[in-house]
Design brief:
Elements lengths: L2 H11 L2 H26 L9 H6 L1 E2 L2 H6 L3 H4 L7 H21 L2 H25 L1 H6 L4 E2 L3 H14 L4 E4 L3 E4 H15 L6 H20 L5 H6 L27 H25 L6 H13 L1
Antiparallel strand pairs: 1-2, 3-4
Helix pairs in contact: 2-6, 6-9, 7-9, 7-11, 9-10, 9-11, 10-11, 13-14
């Protein structure tokens, strides 16, 4: 199996969190590859003049936003600097895994987009209503998944504030303290005028995550997991392509379990023999799925 095929299969059968990470990385790589092409053909572009970056990042000017309304969503997946995308993806993975310990994937997707949108709106309002920001930053662009990541952190921190995680050099730390430190860092960073728009968006994302978790505080557990939710128009990008039907049945005996395991291994061996004879491209869609699932179990 080629690396590209493994990536396609892991995206196709992966979780919502996996897909969010892949899309963020994929957009970053694509933007830089296109920029490299422009560099060899028409000359180099700086970050501030890169047309595609301007087209996907969220502007602080309301009139520009009206011309490019999609940027309120697209900016959440746009990164230009390597360290920017690296840390955002790492935080998304860590906090997303914590989120999924308590809530489901659909809620993770909802919080990601909801936090990003509210973060973008806070950025827009602040840059147009606060005189000091408006005069110092007459125009600006917002990009990155940070607001969405902050929403996920604050949602899980508000939902399970006393849950402990291990941090190097600090030991076990409760989630509520991690969230508190994160918001304090953003607040004290705003006066430095360094990435001010990003810090403002973080606060909007944090507010969304907190309010979302608090809105579920008084609900029974089954409502927290199964209640109807907002239907995201992009949900098809993140919904795993699974045809599995859930049924209730008695637990398998050891003999039945071993028989299924032997049968599954025989199917994997048959597929591997087929690859040796005819190559990977000769496999059917179901055979590729069986092989991918078997590789994940090992």
């Amino acid at each position: 199996m080629t690396i590209w095929q493994e990536i396609k299969d892991s995206y196709k059968w992966g979780s919502v969190l996996t897909r969010l990470i892949y899309i963020n990385i994929g957009v970053f790589v694509l933007l830089r590859l296109i920029q490299a092409f422009f560099t060899f053909t028409t000359g180099p572009y700086a970050e501030s003049s890169y047309p595609l970056l301007q087209w996907l990042s969220m502007p602080s000017n309301p009139l520009s936003l009206m011309v490019k309304p999609w940027t309120l969503v697209s900016y959440m997946f746009v990164h230009y600097q390597f360290l920017h995308v690296l840390f955002n993806v790492l935080y998304l993975y860590w906090f997303g895994k914590l989120f999924l310990e308590f809530l489901n994937s659909r809620r993770l997707l909802y919080v990601y987009f909801g936090g990003g949108i509210l973060g973008g709106l806070v950025y827009l309002l602040a840059f147009n209503l606060v005189p000091s920001f408006y005069h110092y930053f007459p125009s600006g662009l917002l990009m990155g998944a940070s607001a969405s990541v902050m929403a996920i952190l604050f949602a899980v921190a508000a939902y399970a504030p006393n849950h402990r995680v291990y941090l190097m050099f600090f030991g076990d730390v409760r989630l509520k303290y991690i969230a508190l430190v994160a918001v304090i860092i953003d607040l004290i960073s705003i006066p430095t005028l360094d990435n001010t728009g990003g810090h403002l968006a973080h606060l909007g994302g944090a507010l969304f995550g907190y309010l979302y978790a608090r809105s579920m505080a008084g609900k029974p557990v089954q409502h927290r997991h199964n209640a109807p939710e907002w239907k995201n128009p992009l949900v098809g990008l993140f919904k795993p392509k699974s045809k599995m039907k859930v049924t209730h049945r008695r637990p398998l005996t050891d003999m039945e379990y071993n028989a299924i395991k032997v049968k599954r291994q025989a199917e994997v061996d048959r597929i591997l023999d087929k690859i040796k004879m005819s190559g990977y491209d000769s496999l059917t869609k179901d055979e590729k799925k069986v092989l991918f699932e078997a590789s994940q179990e090992r």
